[in-house]
Amino acid sequence: MTDAAAPALRARHRVVPGAPGARRAAVTPVEAGPIAILPSAEPAFVAAVERAGGVVAPLTAATRGIVWTAASGSEDLARVLDEHPSVAWLQLPWAGVDAFAGLIGRAAGDGRVWTSAKGAYAQPVAEHALMLVLAVLRELPRRVRATSWHVDEVGRTLYGANVVIVGAGGIAVELLRLLAPFGARVTIVRRSAEPVVGAERTLPTTRLGEALDDADVVVLAAALTGDSRGLIAAAELQRMPRGAVLVNVARGGLIDTGALVEALESGHLGGAGLDVTDPEPLPTGHPLWQAPNCIVTPHVADTEEMTVPLFGERIAHNVRAFLGDGDFEGRIDPVAGY
Predict the structure, then answer these.
(1) In angstroms, rounded to a whole number, what is the distance separating the alpha carbons of residues 47 and 236?
(2) Which of 36, 72, 289, 299 has its CA at 20 to 30 Å from residue 91's CA atom?
């Protein structure tokens, strides 16, 4: 991977699942044209475009599609689009697109197709979520810091637990599959009450508090939007039973960090596993680093080794859709913001 592309992928913007499903491609083979890979043309992504039948070329007036490989750069991308109105399709690199929210919102109704990688990284992120759940339930944050033998009876099982997953996209669906052998009773909380296969019940976000009332474990796997920012604050943490566990593999902004620290230090919250934080990066010396039974992993639920081939697969799929063969995957709803 090139120096420019590697940091972009390491600065993952994951997120969130739950937006409307794929729709019929808006461009036709006649409209399709050269595809530019910006700001850096990673060879693996060039190969993905070409094996799907697309043509990679430098950005010109003829460019019809753009694969954006950086996790940020909204202003740069906006300038590209302003200067190249012929672009009909944009592929963003991560599931979460909050870094581009303003640009996407302004693009609503302009006829362009926007796609993300939502669902593409579901397996590694769900795997990481499960790891965090098990580690916190078994008190590993405290135990790995121990420097002498100390036997206690602290630790809980995931078998038969009440698990709440906030979000209903690819990560949630994959996590449901991973939880099945544990016989966990899973509640999905999403924007609508449309049932999710494999979940015992599905509740709309307006009934989040009801879902939290008897939760042993809460996993956040939802998109960060204006409506979901601060979704888990002091009131929600207090509704969770004493000793419950909170895991976040979505976006740090879903949680009120101050309230989280207080809930951990008071002992009301039994533990937390955080792959994302607010602020991020989490500053050295921040209370979360030393909070009781808390694990912080630095936004590495899906590493570059995992994401590059998976993003390549998403690019190839959507290039075929761009050329008129099938539907776009991971299509973004500019109004919903994900």
Answers:
(1) 46
(2) 299
Dist CA 37 CA 35 (whole Å): 7
- Considering just the CA atoms, what is the radius of gyration of the chain in Å? 21
Convert the pLDDT of each residue in 60-114 to its tens digit. 999 999 999 998 899 999 999 999 999 999 999 998 898 999 999 998 888 999 9
| 268 is an active site residue | no
Identified catalytic residue from 299, 314, 320, 331: 299
pTM passes above 0.90: no
Phi, psi (5° rounding) for residue 295? -115, 130
Active-site choice (251, 314, 317, 320): 251
Q: How many Cα atoms within 13 Å fall on the side-chain side of residue 281?
A: 7
Residue 200 bears catalytic tag: no
Active site annotation includes 207: no
Amino acid residing at 324: G
pLDDT in tens, 273-313: 999 999 999 999 999 999 989 999 999 999 999 999 999 99
